[in-house]
Specification:
It is built from 1 helix and 7 strands, in the order H-E-E-E-E-E-E-E. By secondary structure, it is mainly beta. The longest helix has 4 residues.
Length: about 90
């Protein structure tokens, strides 16, 4: 799969059914040694409540991705996922 095919896809969490955001052009963490994608980074969502808080980007480890479809990326994330709560860098 090419990066251009991944960009613009909506990311949906299968655990909660929530839409987490959209994959952008530069929202990937790539291992320089192997060239493999390690994670997708989604920017903080803009909300009225979030306007006054310190929002962090959402880092989705590549191994949390279940399926990449024609229009969406399905991920499985919950509070127990070890890398889900960790901030960038890994």
């Amino acid at each position: 799969m090419r990066l251009s095919e991944l960009v613009g896809k909506e990311v949906v969490n299968i655990v909660s059914g929530a839409r987490l955001g959209t994959v952008g052009d530069s929202d990937l963490v790539i291992d320089e040694a192997t060239g493999e994608i390690e994670a997708i980074i989604l920017p903080p969502r803009n909300t009225l409540v979030g306007f006054w808080t310190d929002r962090q980007p959402l880092i989705i480890p590549w191994d949390a991705i279940i399926k990449i479809g024609a229009e969406v990326v399905i991920v499985e994330l919950d509070e127990t996922y070890p890398k889900y709560t960790r901030r960038f860098p890994f």
